[in-house]
Structure formats: structure tokens, C-alpha cells
């Protein structure tokens, strides 16, 4: 939609008032990003996986194409090789990761649901990157506890992407901070949680949005206060907070 209406003018002055610097003033602008720089560069296998996912009833859970492109770029920039993903669903972010890391790179991928992972698996196999993935079906927390106990995994991960049960993010963080190497990166997805982090208490939110909102707000506060990491919260997708371990 063109940026000319009265509502837009109110929005412009509101943006100035709070020093708003986001360029995303409209859905049309988001569409422009997708059509100009994301879809034309999206690998065929990722497009195929995105289209398979679009037909699934829970498709709202998938990582967006622009976020997939961002993750792929970030992984290459940091030369990530040993990685982990918590929350796979049909594997869009997993494939973005698998394509970014070297041929002998690894992804420890965890999800309580294997069936959805298997929907995307043919596209991952076709892309020739399935050998990088060690998929574990089940809750992630016990696997992390086992790795902490084992000792040999401390400080070994270059990159960890967390996109699962929001009520466990702080539990994940307590463990992941030991498993990621100093200089490595943890990405927490959905940290703007559908914009609900700034919704007034009486806002009409969907039940699951309301339930997880307080956990996301707590996580955001905890990450901002954690001296072991540097952080950057990006308004990509549903909000993604990039944490770089510094100690
Ligand atoms: C938002 S989806 C992940 C989206 C995925 N990153 C993508 O690119 O499509 C969240 C996933 O977390 C999984 N999940 C929920 N609780 C979990 C847990 N305790 N351990 C591991 N995975 C979990 C769900 O089964 C679901 O597939």
C-alpha cells in the first residue's frame, strides 16, 4: 500500500517521536525485499522446501525466506562449521544452515517431531547436504544436559539456532552458553513474538501468543543483562536476537 494516507502521517510523526529507524513501514516494503533480493537468490532446494511447507497445516511455524537468507549469510561470515539447531519443523532454517557450512560441517538438529523433518528431508537430500545433519528426535533439554555432563562438548559450537519451545529459552541459554565457543554465536528466534512484547496487558492476543509472551520478555531482559554475551536484536522475521559469546 502507498505511504500517503492520514494514518501513515500519524505513523511518520510517531516514528520521529520515538526515533524509529526501521525501514519497514509497510507490507509492500517487505514484499519488495522478498521479491527483489530474497526470492531471486533463493536456492532451488530451499524454494522447493518452502513450497512443501506452505501446504502443511502448521506452516506458520516455518522460518521466513528473508530470515533463512540472513542465517545463511551470517553462518558464512563467521565461518561456522560445528552447529546446532533446536526446533527443526520441516527444515527451512536447517537447510539454510546446511548449505552455508563446509562439506565436513555438522549440525546437531533436535526436534520432538520427526514426521515434519521428514517432509523436508527429500529437498535436503536432493541438495546433497543431508550427511551434515545429525537429527535427534525428542526434547532438546536432556540432550544438552548430557552434553554438559559429558564435558567434551564445552566451547565446541560455532553457531546455535534456537527456534523451539519459548518457555524453555532461558533453560537453553543456561546450557548453551557453555556449549558455544567464545566468539561463537547463539541466535534466538521469535524475540519480538508477533509484536506482543509491547502489547498492553488487555490486548486481545491469541492464547498461545499470550502464554509465551512473558517468557519471551523475560528472555529479552536476561540476554540484555548477561555480561557473557554481546547482543543484537534484529527485526527480521519474528525478531531474532544474535548473541556473541565473549567470556
Ligand atoms: C517454530 S518451529 C521451528 C521452525 C524451523 N526452525 C523452520 O525453519 O521451519 C518450532 C519447533 O520446535 C519443536 N519443539 C517444541 N518443543 C521442543 C523441545 N522441547 N525440544 C525440541 N524441539 C521442540 C516443535 O516440534 C517445532 O517443530
TrEMBL record:
<dbReference type="GO" id="GO:0008757">
    <property type="term" value="F:S-adenosylmethionine-dependent methyltransferase activity"/>
</dbReference>
<keyword id="KW-0949">S-adenosyl-L-methionine</keyword>
<comment type="similarity">
    <text>Belongs to the class I-like SAM-binding methyltransferase superfamily. Cation-dependent O-methyltransferase family.</text>
</comment>
<dbReference type="InterPro" id="IPR029063">
    <property type="entry name" value="SAM-dependent_MTases_sf"/>
</dbReference>
<keyword id="KW-0489">Methyltransferase</keyword>
<dbReference type="Pfam" id="PF01596">
    <property type="entry name" value="Methyltransf_3"/>
</dbReference>
<comment type="function">
    <text>Methylates caffeoyl-CoA to feruloyl-CoA and 5-hydroxyferuloyl-CoA to sinapoyl-CoA. Plays a role in the synthesis of feruloylated polysaccharides. Involved in the reinforcement of the plant cell wall. Also involved in the responding to wounding or pathogen challenge by the increased formation of cell wall-bound ferulic acid polymers.</text>
</comment>
<dbReference type="GO" id="GO:0046872">
    <property type="term" value="F:metal ion binding"/>
</dbReference>
<protein>
    <recommendedName>
        <fullName>Caffeoyl-CoA O-methyltransferase</fullName>
    </recommendedName>
</protein>
<dbReference type="InterPro" id="IPR050362">
    <property type="entry name" value="Cation-dep_OMT"/>
</dbReference>
<dbReference type="InterPro" id="IPR002935">
    <property type="entry name" value="SAM_O-MeTrfase"/>
</dbReference>
<dbReference type="GO" id="GO:0032259">
    <property type="term" value="P:methylation"/>
</dbReference>
<keyword id="KW-0808">Transferase</keyword>
<keyword id="KW-0479">Metal-binding</keyword>
<dbReference type="GO" id="GO:0008171">
    <property type="term" value="F:O-methyltransferase activity"/>
</dbReference>
Amino acid at each position: 500500500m502507498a505511504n500517503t494516507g492520514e494514518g501513515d502521517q500519524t505513523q511518520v510523526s510517531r516514528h520521529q517521536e520515538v526515533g524509529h529507524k526501521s525501514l519497514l513501514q509497510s507490507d509492500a516494503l517487505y514484499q519488495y525485499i522478498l521479491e527483489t533480493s530474497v526470492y531471486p537468490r533463493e536456492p532451488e532446494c530451499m524454494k522447493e522446501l518452502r513450497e512443501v511447507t506452505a501446504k502443511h497445516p502448521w506452516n506458520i511455524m516455518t522460518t521466513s525466506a528473508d530470515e533463512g537468507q540472513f542465517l545463511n549469510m551470517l553462518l558464512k561470515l563467521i565461518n561456522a562449521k560445528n552447529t546446532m539447531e533446536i526446533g527443526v519443523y520441516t527444515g527451512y532454517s536447517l537447510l539454510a544452515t546446511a548449505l552455508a557450512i563446509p562439506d565436513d560441517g555438522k549440525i546437531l538438529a533436535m526436534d520432538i517431531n520427526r514426521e515434519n523433518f521428514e517432509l523436508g528431508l527429500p529437498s535436503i537430500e536432493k541438495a546433497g547436504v543431508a550427511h551434515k545433519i545429525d537429527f535427534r528426535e525428542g526434547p532438546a533439554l536432556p540432550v544438552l544436559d548430557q552434553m554438559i555432563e559429558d564435558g567434551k562438548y564445552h566451547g565446541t559450537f560455532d553457531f546455535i539456532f534456537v527456534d523451539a519451545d519459548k518457555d524453555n529459552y532461558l533453560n537453553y541459554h543456561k546450557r548453551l552458553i557453555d556449549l558455544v565457543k567464545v566468539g561463537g554465536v547463539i541466535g534466538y528466534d521469535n524475540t519480538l513474538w508477533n509484536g506482543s512484547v509491547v502489547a498492553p496487558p488487555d490486548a486481545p492476543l491469541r492464547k498461545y501468543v499470550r502464554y509465551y509472551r512473558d517468557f519471551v520478555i523475560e528472555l529479552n531482559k536476561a540476554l540484555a543483562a548477561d555480561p557473557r554475551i554481546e547482543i543484537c536484536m534484529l527485526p527480521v522475521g519474528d525478531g531474532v536476537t544474535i548473541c556473541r559469546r565473549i567470556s
